[in-house]
Design goal:
Blueprint (H helix, E strand, L loop, with lengths): L6 H19 L8 H14 L23 H9 L8 H4 L31 H31 L4 H12 L2 H7 L5 H21 L3 H15 L8 H16 L2 H18 L1 H11 L5 H8 L8 H6 L1 H9 L1 E2 L4 E2 L2 H27 L3 H27 L12 H16 L4 H24 L13 E7 L3 E8 L2 E3 L4 E10 L8 E7 L5 E7 L16 E9 L10 E12 L4 E2 L2 E2 L5 E2 L3 E8 L12 E8 L3 E9 L2 E8 L8 E7 L5 E4 L16 E7 L10 E7 L16 E2 L1 H4 L1
Parallel strand pairs: 5-14
Antiparallel strand pairs: 1-2, 3-4, 3-12, 4-6, 6-9, 7-8, 7-10, 10-11, 10-14, 12-13, 15-16, 16-17, 17-20, 18-19, 18-21, 21-22
Helix pairs in contact: 1-5, 1-6, 1-19, 2-3, 5-6, 5-7, 5-8, 5-18, 6-18, 6-19, 8-9, 8-10, 8-17, 9-11, 10-11, 10-17, 16-18, 17-18
């Protein structure tokens, strides 16, 4: 007869299977700080010594992680000792255009360059995967510890244990970090075991064997990451409460001596080293200096303003802190977290009312672990840019218990198993829908789509621009301008060239830009095959406009290639081989709705003149050879129209003309908006300028907008004289 799996066993198996998907989905070194964590393993393997940090020499293979307690890296060096990682520098080829730490960017999410997202398991790739597997197993230790903490606290309510372990195991961010090379995994596992032993001590009293084990694990935790130190005052506070309750002074002293002795033997040397090298116990000032100290003044308001990114990074901010999943997930977890907080408060109130000190105090101490965790992460964030909720993972032995307890208090356990299952399903989907697409380069095309705008421009002898697509819509400052370009490769190259897309205003000034390797950094020109057709879509962020900048104009995109090493741009040619100054694509219009345009003192007409029922002429002014016309949009305009301004003599002959489109194409106008067009005309004598006709026409066929005047043109000569 087959033995049925217990809930924890089933949960751990599911966690491990999903965790393997995360490991497979995340390219080498594309997890949070994995590049630097592996660098620490590498330097320990090569030198057998811890590095000495120098704020003036930050560009190392380990960066700020060289300031971390070393236990995880020592274990990593031992685990990978038999693997040749002499090829590590090949994997460490940086993407010069990487957008690290910018949440939900559309391009250059990869910190390093990848020629193969799933390479053979050998050399550095094998070492990284082995360390990721080790981290995943540490995550399983954490989950098991969380489960047993809840079972110890709530032996008659097994659903709390299942939910606490489930919300830990199937938190997409926990899975992501657990599937990466990161010392958080070791300290999280050790801290969770500390909390388990601590809770058992609070409920059952001092026990020498358990106290010795608690002291040992706590010392190891403090040698894994400074997050382990956060538990020390909580353990001391709990021990004080316990001795005052049961008067077991021998047990209290034994635990204290064991903690002090084992910490001094196991971890104390590293803290003494900090004092000798950096003149500080924890080394955080040096770590912040290497990581990059804040350049702005930080305070509590700073933490509040950055809390959105903080809570996103607790549930799912992947890659190098720049890959998100669906927005609705974060909103849902915000609501559930708020509900858990309310439920926990209600639970504490019930325990207080019923005077259940034996449970109230352990839960209060778990709450203090969470609070101290927030304080420690906040203190670190005030020194450097580190508003990441995942830094609270070392305290999941407390936070997950409080979450599950809060939900259980509100729901009496109804629906919680189903919720855990739903979270597991979502966690499985995330790497497939969010992580893998962030790094997978698009496949070449066989033909151009039918709806593209064909164009031709050849850059040097290696690639030609054959078509493009743009939304050609109305944008606002801080918007993202969308453009798709189509390339045909001419010949292979051994050089990695960069593409630039510059958004230009009406005066040719750059108001938005992207510099990138092809496909948003997901491939490079040295890997392109000749005679292949590629399409790549970019979303270019538009800048805020200065107060004195025109606030309505057409935008264009200048496209070019350059060599990042030499800083030289490619020469560009048309299909006849003739050189071009640049390649500029029509992209849309920009309107700053927050800035009202000024019309000066243009005299307005007594009665407006309608053109096509969609544009009214409402004002006219002539100053020398400059004619200014004031228009108001009264309907939806589908085309980009041009204003004609014609000067006729008494015989009806055309003697001057100053046609000009508006700075913002009419297709982007909205009803009720007012615009000015400006036209240059020679300053004719009244006898010469018998008539000055204005109106609108479609440039492609010269069809004029209808108006109640001959030739669909309105004579303004009588108005301006």
């Amino acid at each position: 007869m087959t033995k049925r799996l217990r809930p924890l066993q089933l949960l751990l198996i599911t966690y491990l299977l999903i965790g393997i998907v995360y490991i497979w989905a995340t390219p080498i070194f594309e997890a949070s700080d994995e590049l630097w964590h592996f660098g620490m393993v590498e330097v320990l393997r090569e030198t057998g010594e811890l590095p000495v940090q120098d704020a003036n020499a930050r560009e190392t293979i380990y960066r700020q992680e060289g300031s971390q307690p070393p236990l995880y890296y020592i274990l990593g060096a031992v685990l990978t000792a038999g693997i040749d990682i002499s090829d590590a520098d090949i994997w460490r080829e940086y993407n010069p255009h990487a957008k690290v730490g910018i949440a939900n960017v559309d391009d250059n999410k990869n910190i390093v360059l990848h020629d193969d997202l799933h390479p053979p398991l050998q050399g550095t790739a094998l070492a990284v995967m082995m360390l990721r597997g080790f981290s995943l197993l540490l995550g399983a230790v954490t989950i098991a510890a969380v489960y047993h903490i809840a079972r110890t606290l709530f032996p008659d309510q097994p659903r709390i244990a299942l939910v606490a372990a489930g919300v830990t195991a199937f938190n997409p961010m926990f899975l992501f970090i657990a599937g990466s090379v990161n010392n958080d995994n070791l300290v999280t596992a050790l801290n969770s075991v500390v909390v388990l032993l601590f809770v058992k001590t609070l409920l059952n009293g001092f026990d020498r064997r358990r106290s010795l084990l608690l002291a040992l694990v706590l010392a190891l935790a403090t040698l894994s990451k400074l997050s382990g130190v956060v538990l020390v005052p909580v353990v001391i506070a709990g021990a004080v409460w316990l001795v005052l309750r049961n008067r077991d002074w021998r047990g209290f002293v034994f635990l204290g001596v064991a903690m002090a002795t084992l910490w001094a033997i196991i971890a104390g040397w590293w803290y003494v080293r900090n004092i000798l090298l950096y003149h500080e116990l924890f080394g955080t000032a040096m770590m912040a200096a290497v990581a990059g100290e804040r350049t702005d003044a930080a305070n509590l308001l700073t933490l509040v303003n950055e809390f959105e990114g903080f809570r996103i990074a607790y549930w799912g901010l992947f890659g190098t802190v720049n890959v998100m999943t669906v927005t609705a997930f974060y909103t849902l977890m915000d609501l559930l977290s708020g509900a858990a907080f309310v439920g926990s408060l209600w639970g504490f109130w019930q325990l207080w009312q019923t005077k259940r000190d034996s449970l109230f105090v352990p839960m209060a101490l778990l709450a203090s672990v969470t609070l101290l965790g927030f304080v420690s992460v906040g203190a670190w964030t005030l020194q450097t840019y580190a508003s990441q909720g995942r830094l609270l993972f070392p305290f999941v032995g407390a936070t997950s218990i409080l979450l599950a307890w809060g939900w259980h208090t509100l729901t009496r356990g109804h629906g919680l198993r189903l919720a855990v299952g739903a979270l597991a399903v979502f966690a499985f989907i995330v790497p497939i829908t969010s992580i893998i697409p962030a790094y997978a380069p698009p496949s070449p095309l066989t033909t151009l789509p039918d709806d593209v705008q064909e164009i031709y421009a050849r850059y040097g002898d290696f690639v030609e621009l054959v078509a493009y697509q743009s939304a050609e819509r109305r944008y606002t400052p801080d918007d993202m301008l969308e453009v798709t370009v189509y390339w045909r490769t001419l010949q292979q190259t051994n050089t990695d060239y960069s593409l630039f897309l510059h958004v230009l205003d009406d005066e040719g000034q750059v108001i938005g830009r992207i510099d990138t390797y092809p496909m948003g950094g997901r491939t490079r020109t040295s890997q392109w095959q000749d005679n292949m057709l590629y399409a790549e879509t970019y979303f270019v962020p538009l800048d805020e406009l200065s107060p004195d900048h025109d606030n309505r104009f057409d935008v264009r995109v200048q496209v070019g290639w350059w060599d990042i090493q030499t800083q030289q741009q490619f020469d560009v040619y048309n299909d006849a081989g003739e050189p071009l100054d640049s390649v500029v694509l029509v992209a849309g219009g920009l309107v700053d709705a927050d800035t009202q345009p000024t019309y000066g003192d243009i005299p307005q007409l007594d009665a407006s003149v309608s053109f096509g029922g969609i544009i009214d002429l409402i004002g006219v002014e002539q100053d020398g050879d400059t004619l200014r016309l004031l228009w108001q949009s009264t309907g939806t305009i589908d085309d980009s129209l041009t204003v004609f301004a014609q000067v006729l003599n008494e015989d009806g002959d055309l003697i001057d003309q100053g046609d000009a489109p508006p700075v913002l194409s009419t297709r982007y106008w909205q009803p009720g908006e007012i615009y000015i067009t400006q036209h240059t005309l020679d300053d004719h004598e009244p006898a010469q300028a018998a008539r000055i006709l204005v109106g609108w026409y479609e440039p492609t066929n010269f069809a004029r907008l209808a108006t109640d005047n001959p030739d669909n043109a309105y004579d303004i000569v009588g108005i301006i004289r």
